[in-house]
Amino acid sequence: MESDRPSAMPRHQRMRDLQLSRRADLWDVERAVRVRSGTQPVEVVGEIALFGDPTTYPTEREIGGLARNGCAVGLGVAPGCSPTTVQFDRLLALARTRDVRVIGRVGLDHSAPPTDWPRQDLLLKRVLGRCLDGRHHRILCLEVSGVQGDVAGEECHYRVLDILRLSRVSKEQRLLLADYASTEAVATAYLRHFPRTYFSVTSRVTGFTADQRKGLRFIATNEDRRLLMGSNGPDYPPAGYPVGAPHLLWATAVAVGQVSREAEDGATGMSHG
Fold it and tell me: Smallest Cα–Cα separation from 11: which of 237, 214, 242, 234?
């Protein structure tokens, strides 16, 4: 019988946080984290596996197996990694296989010491210059973290945009900004230069500042088709749950809806308890 629950394709889940074996699947996760009454669970229908550490890259055969089981595969190099020549060559070889649908996560992490920023710049430029293939139009998944105290990461996002443009990334390239938490100005800049940009948000939206909430409202109001909900694994559990899990994405949707209504509530004087 067809389910009436919304469907989802989560990015990842650390099984050890749920005391499950390494062989556990997404449906084991769903059974391990029970949904409280009065909430709307989400049906898990697939998975996106992102590998950002060169030491954990799967083999081509393993990638094919994941794809045959309905799992989309992405390969990248996280900003904190320093791949060897051999590791980067392996990334290039695997990224050219047909079953790799995403390049990422890649990006910049300016919470690291400024002395590390030039290395991160060079790594991002290297990935963009060597791994993107315009004929395949793979999704580019970006991870951006700002300096200490800059929770919206504006400076870091603008640096990423500069590197994308200097690297001559096509305006038609699809971008996915993972765990987006920046401002309206930053979202507008991405959409102006890369109209096929998508924004993924997690339950962290409940702790957004006023500027971050304004940015989220802008996307939800004007570009709602480009707003995606992400579970972001167990690190960001919804209120009342010990860990986050894919089938709890409804909590993120509720939080986004509450932020989106704030402008209307301010105009009408209404409030939601």
Answer: 234
Q: Which of 157, 224, 169, 227 is nearest to 198 (CA)?
A: 227
For 205, the token pair is 């939206």
Rounded mean pLDDT of 49-53? 89
Q: How many angstroms separate the CA atoms of 111 and 261, rounded?
A: 32
For CA atoms 203, 206, 208, 210, the dihedral sign is: positive
Q: What is each CA distance from 106 to 2, 103, 128, 174, 206, in whole angstroms?
A: 37, 8, 9, 14, 25
Q: Where are the beta strands (DSSP E) in 126-272?
A: 139-145, 175-177, 197-201, 227-229
Structure confidence by residue, pLDDT tens digits, 67-107: 888 888 999 999 999 999 999 999 999 998 989 999 989 99
- Inter-CA distances, 8 with 11, 110, 253, 255, Å: 10, 31, 12, 17
Q: In whole angstroms, give the CA distance from residue 46 to residue 176.
A: 18
Q: Which residue has the tokens 């999704």?
A: 139
For residues 125 and 123, what is the distance between their CA atoms, to the nearest angstrom? 5
Residue 13 banded pLDDT, cuts 50, 70, 90: very low
Cβ 77 vs Cβ 57: under 8 Å: no
Match 């710049």 to its residue by tokens: 121
Tokens of 37: 């009454």
For residue 105, cis peptide bond before it (omega within 30 degrees of 0): yes
Output the pLDDT for position 271. 27
Residue type for 174, please? R
